[in-house]
Amino acid sequence: MSKASEVKSGNILRFNGELVAVEEYIHRTPGNLRAFYQARMRNVKTGKLVEYRFRTDEEVEIARVETNDYNYLYDDGEFFVVMDNSTYEQFNIPKQLFGDSARFLKEGMNVIVAFESEEPIMGQIPASVELEITYTEPAVKGDTSTNALKNATVETGVEIKVPLFINQGDKVRVDTRSGDYIERVK
Questions:
Q1: Is the sign of the CA dihedral 83, 84, 86, 87 positive or negative?
Q2: How far apart are CA 80 and CA 75, in angstroms?
Q3: R_g of the chain, CA atoms, integer Å
Q4: CB neighbours (10 Å) of residue 28?
């Protein structure tokens, strides 16, 4: 157990039996009242936001979390199979830990996974990925004066909006958080 004064933003705490990630942690000393720590925390599993005031001498449990780079191998039902780059050990990671960005995962891609006592608690893929366009309609000549967008399917099977000059076979960079086109890759 640690004191509330030892907590920093970015720590993962065991709070009310659940794991929460500390997003904001501010020390407040209002007027002639006792000082406290105002914390804004997000539940790791559900994503729910929690706000709490810790007394300065309050006991908190800082979870021991190991974060490492892993290589994504393949999709196995409700799990993604990843491999540790140094020990070549394989792990099954639940798909919901990666959220909506999991649809852009491609074999061989590096991902970040956080474990808390042998249990995976968080998965994250890079902020942007390079994917090849497998299908898109050809652009009509003279229709490129505006910044109009058309539908295109990338190699992972996801449909995104791209500018009219993008053709089948081009490689594009995609933002994994929003699914938006960023740029064409040469």
A1: negative
A2: 5
A3: 22
A4: 11
DSSP codes joined into one string, 42-94: EETTT--EEEEEEETT-EEEE--EEEEEEEEEEEETTEEEEEETTT--EEEEE
Give the pLDDT of residue 82: 95
Token pair belonging to 38: 């105002």
Over residues 32-78, the pLDDT tens digits come to: 889 999 999 999 888 899 999 999 999 999 998 888 999 999 999 89
Closest CA to 88 of 74, 73, 104, 77: 73
φ, ψ for residue 20 (rounded to 5)?
-130, 145
For 86, other C-beta atoms within 10 Å of its C-beta total 8
Residue 39 token pair: 């914390």
The answer to whether the predicted template modeling score (pTM) of the entire model surpasses 0.85 is: no
CB of 99 within 8 A of CB of 132? Answer: no
List the structure tokens of 24: 């904001």
Burial of 128 (0-12, 13-18, 19+ CB in 10 A): middle
